[in-house]
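Write out structure tokens for Energy-coupling factor transport system permease protein.
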Amino acid sequence: MRPPAGRPWLARLNPLAKFAAAFLVTAGLIPVLDPVTAGVVLVAAAALLPVSGLGVRALVTLGGSLFLMSVSIGTINLVFGDEGALPALGTAVRLLAIALPSVLAGMTSDPTEVADALVQKLRLPERPALGVLAALRLVPLLAGQWRTLGLARRARGVESGGNPIAAVGIFAGKAFALLVRAIRTGTHLAAAMEARAFGSGGRSHARTSRWTAADTCLLVGTAAVLFLAHGLSMYLGTWRLLFG
């Protein structure tokens, strides 16, 4: 079964190709600490946003959170570090360049397609692959349960009233309640999957995980971008190893 042609280009790619590309980016950027190498990769990753199919709200939320994360880390390195502004800027840009491809791979991959790719392409046992699928499917459910817990406490008048100590206690109580619900849900789900013989082997697949030329192009393009980024940084004299 081929992915629907109406889906955005990035969403139609095999999840393994997207996660492998994100892994290549991570492996290629962790050893270096300069803004040029990471900046080239970041620009290339940002160029995929128009073909990701993510809405404006998701892009704003994603971009804002990643930007605040990188600025915070860069500021800490600038204020408390002793290596100057360029390494601090390199750290901030590198975090963005590493995080953006990984987030795009996760947000544009269907959980069922991820499980199919793990079983059919990587030949992983069905039990861990189905566990990954179940975990991804349960994330929205846990988010809804978190909101329900908050509304239930508000209905009973359990609020912090602006007291930060009370807010920490309320948060801890909600987190513990959510943990209990997650364990119960996971136990019931595991029992249901066991009763239906999931992971016992010899099962057919409703959908076929396909590796296309576009998936290969994504990996080749990622390697080319990394090679270009490192080469440009060396040419400009900004290339610097993390532990050099």
